[in-house]
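Dear Dr. L.,

I hope this message finds you well. Following up on our conversation about the binding site, I have prepared a predicted three-dimensional model of the protein together with flavin-adenine dinucleotide. For your records, I am including the exact sequence and ligand specification that went into the calculation, followed by the structure tokens. Please feel free to forward this to your student if that is useful.
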Amino acid sequence: MSEEIKIVVIGAGTGGNMAANHAFKDMKKTKKSYTVTIIDPTFEHVYQPGFLFTSFGAKTKTIIKDSRKMLKKGINAVMDKVTIVDTENKLVKTDKSGDFPYDYLVLATGARMATETAEWWNEDIHEFYSPKGAEKLWAALQKFEEGKVVVSIADLPYKCPPAPVEMSMLLDDYFKKRGIRDKVDIIYTSPLNRPFSIETTSSRVEGYLEDKNIDVRLLFNTDYVYADEEEGYAVESMEGEEVEYDLLIMVPPHRGQQFIIDSGIAKGQGWIPTNKETLEVNGQENMFALGDCTDIPTSKAGSTAHYQSPVVGKNIANKVMGKELALYDGHVQCFFLTEFGKSMFINFNYKIPPPPTPTRKFWWLFKLAFKPLYYKFLVPGHFHKTIEFFNIKVKDWQNKA
Ligand SMILES: Cc1cc2nc3c(=O)[nH]c(=O)nc-3n(C[C@H](O)[C@H](O)[C@H](O)COP(=O)(O)OP(=O)(O)OC[C@H]3O[C@@H](n4cnc5c(N)ncnc54)[C@H](O)[C@@H]3O)c2cc1C
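The resulting structure of the complex is given below.
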């Protein structure tokens, strides 16, 4: 290892920005000389939970910010695309800015929308996983007067597990507000055997979907989408079920980044094999991964990256100091919207599932207040200790006698 310890972070989304800030702060404890460099092709930080609002008319510009403004002073920001990681020589290669040697590497490259993997994907299928997709959906919803709206999932895994159920329930509210709910059928399909992956929350969600008269089709693994006058307009499942639509909203296929596969760090769909507690990349030296890019069996969510980021920061410093590694306990929390004005709040970790708590106006207001807090404090890592103090811990509610 060279005199100056070089930490390189790839990706400046939720996980990358937070991990860079934590590493920059935690490395001070080592009393060594170090640099933190973060590389991203655009530094356009998209607050993706906002897509559920931009799909219903909120302005896209309110959810995109320059993530360089959320980095601690002293972190080097390089605007470029990483093309390959040479793991043998510990070099990160970029498109235009040359090579970056590293002693510690953090991968925070997210999940990409991979519509090219579904040969049936066409431009009339709506998605709300990109700024353009959400804007296009809003344009289509305003013109929609009657018929069948299908919310479906292309394949697993995808980011933000509640998002398609939330979309279905928000559609119900939207069409009610327009006074045309009786002319619109809302159908939600899921490859799972219940509406939501976690049983305790799903029991609540089932009731809400029923009250809202949303038709739920379970064990529905999307196989094909028909989209022409001759064949009709329908989604077909591998189980042989067919659901007709007038407007189709689909969670797109998700994959890891191609350069991760090309670098020999991951195989198959590109999810990085990661130790679910230490966040070290399996089979690699001094390499960590966090957020959506890992294969960790938990939600691909911003809050996952948030709770993982201090572990990555600490573990780089701990490795430098020869100390024991910190462990991520699987903490995830999420607002789960059930209508415009009400939300559930789910808070869980690897061991404890969320309690089956009902939807509340309070959590909706909390969700609205969260965005400015996210930009001002959470991502930049300001007042980290204060935020941790208010952190809603996961309580072992099942063993509370
Ligand atoms: C509709 C929707 C609703 C959501 N709602 C919630 C919610 O309510 N709560 C919640 O916790 N989460 C939510 N999420 C999920 C959350 O937004 C993501 O899980 C989170 O952004 C993941 O952070 P990340 O850092 O792993 O990836 P990202 O934030 O996606 O960042 C990945 C970064 O990697 C960069 N990158 C990729 N390839 C390269 C390369 N070759 N070189 C350099 N950089 C590269 C990209 O430019 C990007 O900046 C939602 C997501 C969606 C789509």
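In brief: The first strand starts at residue 5 and ends at 10.

With kind regards,
A. P.
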